[in-house]
User: Fold these one by one.
Assistant:
Number 1:
Amino acid sequence: MTNCESNRESIGSWLDGELSPGESESVRLHLAGCAACSEVRRQLESLNLALKNQLTANAAEIEFLPFWRGVQQRINQKRPWHEEFLERCRELFSAPRMAWSVPAVIALVLALASIDFYLPGWRLGGPRNNFATVDSIDAHGRSVALLRENESKTTVIWLYQDQEGENEAAEDATKSGPAF
Amino acid sequence: MKLLKTRPSLVLLFSLLLVSIAGWGGAAEKDPQSVQVTIRSILAANKSDEFDAKLKGMEQQLKSLKYRSYRSLKDETKTVPWQGTQSFEIPGGRLLTVAPQEFQENRIALKVRLTEKDKPIVDTTVTIPNKGNFILGGPPHEGGALVLSISAATP
């Protein structure tokens, strides 16, 4: 595209004040040095003037009230719920949104899987299953209780100090053991 | 939306990045080199109604033991290699030896031995969830009972 062609495409926008200051200055400089493009500008300005004069002359005869009433009526018109629902579904399941949902779902799954790593104390829906599996216990002759506490999901191995002569001072505290 | 229309490769790259992170995270979990073992020594007694604030996170677990007071005596964490052994000094001249055995399905198998003056009190092999714990209690201590919370986590 030559310089004149690209500038001619912008003359209309320039006249309407739609160009950025930089673009506007570029077109102005080109028009100052190009007779052919200045002629295009003059023609466009004449056309604009003719249109403006015509509209001004006929404006008094145009009835705007019915037009605005129609616009207002369409704004206030309540669509049936199913139409709105379908419209929302179409927006929700449109291809671009569905494509974005793939990484979003991956991110959500990763976040849920990482909760335990980053927030070990935080649990979704109460305490996690903390039960241990006891493969073997040898208490060397002592009594031992193996308990699974349901509320905190904890496994407790409790040793009873029931051998003769063993730490009699603490006998009272441990003889019965905890009341589970 | 505009981004997806103009740069679909960016969305694809983002998805691949997330999948790679997930894969890397999974691989890291499958091959832990060692285990962090933490032993919390607690004195459970019936002499008062004191509940040590340091044990706040274990309140529900300890309350099930039905003692009136709980006081933290000692906390110790050590890194133990697989098939290795670490000893923890426990109040009352006791020694707890922990040997991690294996890591399977996010559960850690531990061989645990509690001794007192070189005499074994208990030998047990327990499998606990990763970052979970179990309680070993009962040995008498200072007029109450010693409660040990044994937890293990892969780094």
Number 2:
Amino acid sequence: MMAAYLLPAFEWLQHTPLAQTIRHSAALIATLEIVHLIGLALLIGTILMVDLSLLGLGIGRHPASQIARELRNWTAAGLAIMLASGPLILSSEAERCYKTPAFWVKMALLALAVTFHFTIHRRVALAEPPQPHPSARLVASLSLALWIGVALAGKGIAIFQPA
Amino acid sequence: MLPFGLFLLSICQWIDSTRLNVVMRQSNWAFPALDTIHTLGIVLVAGTIMLVDLRLLGLGLRSVPVAQLVGRIVPATLGGFGLMLLSGGLLFSSEAVKMYHSPAFRIKMALLALAGVNAFIFHRTIYRDVANWDHGSAAPVGARVAGLLSLIFWIAIIAAGRAIAYAPGYDLG
């Protein structure tokens, strides 16, 4: 479990008027989850395309760098949609999330995935000329594993209720 | 009730009476595990289809010929769809009669059919001479309409799927 000093912040978050409004509206929660899922589809779809290219399974002779350049704004849009809807969903059940290990696993994986995406992954994906296959493949595999891990842990928050 | 409705209801009642239904209900992990696979499946399907839709609309991957993109991405879409169908069928078998009465479930099935018809018409008409417009960044109007419809249908399918969990429609029985 996370350090206890964070608990007051989660309690405060859940008691804000916005969080209370969301918490008491099934329609709002459902809508936010739908938006969150659409963001995820956009994020995973675009990253999959770039990572397939890095794995040597790309489109014809189009280099990964070209695919990555053309899709980077859509990946960013997917991430922005998720980062806008996610904290709102979190706020409506902040105290439960605090007690759910899957939430902390997701936050850790998300931090890793975002950091990796905007540093090593970005450098390798946009590299001209393309990076040699072994390292590009490793980066693509890690990227896919991290983002799928984030998605699975997200589903885990709903499935694993705190003891 | 219409005879066809009664027919579907009796099929759902039969599914709820099978051993599969009992197994699904008694297992603590089957539903969440299949639900997780189902979500990953829809994310894969919607995510890959969105790429094609954005290309048709001229909003992304403009340098990539449409046929090459479709050839590469459709296997992943079909894989995701297979996951969705298999996990969805099993989830359905655990509460078939409840799904029969759920408005959100009915809407989702109708939207899936519409998305299928849209893709079928696109492949049978405009896509047949894709070689003629493959390389241009702007696809013909028909292709753009198909792309836009597809985007709308799949977003609506995600929405209806999520709504099933929130609006089960018990009261319609």
